[in-house]
Amino acid sequence: MNFDKDLDVRNLTCPLPILRTKRALSDMTSGQILRIVATDKGSVKDMPAFANQTGNELLSSTEENIEFIFFLKKK
């Protein structure tokens, strides 16, 4: 999937992946896509909840090896 910005939050634990995601999205324009790579297992629940609360669209959520990859579309 194509994306406009890449965010590496590997080796960070809750709440840092969400806080960094929020900060990264603030620099983006509506419709742009952010790719997030995390290792915190809590992010599997946190990212969908964050997207739901903020109105951003979670396009994809996958796990590769021990990394979780999310694609968020800014509202």
Which features would summarize this protein structure in a list?
Translation Initiation Factor IF3; 75 residues; 31% helix; alpha+beta; 4-stranded mixed beta sheet; 4 strands; 2 helices
Short account of what is shown:
The chain has 75 residues and is α+β, with helices and mostly antiparallel strands. It is 31% helix and 35% strand. It has one domain: TusA-like domain (Translation Initiation Factor IF3), CATH 3.30.110.40.
List the total number of helices.
2
Give the C-alpha Rg.
Answer: 11 Å
First CA to last CA: what distance?
Answer: 18 Å
Strand order of the largest sheet: 1-2-4-3
Q: How is the topology of this model organized?
A:
Elements: E1 5-9, H1 16-26, E2 33-38, H2 43-54, E3 57-64, E4 67-73
Can you walk through the features of this model?
- The chain starts with a strand and ends with a strand.
- The protein has one domain (5-73): Translation Initiation Factor IF3.
- It has a four-stranded mixed beta sheet, with helices on one face.
- The protein has 75 residues and is α+β, with helices and mostly antiparallel strands.
- The longest helix is centred in the middle third of the chain and has 12 residues, at 43-54.
- Strand 1 (5-9), helix 1 and strand 2 (33-38) form a beta-alpha-beta unit.
- The chain contains two helices and four strands.
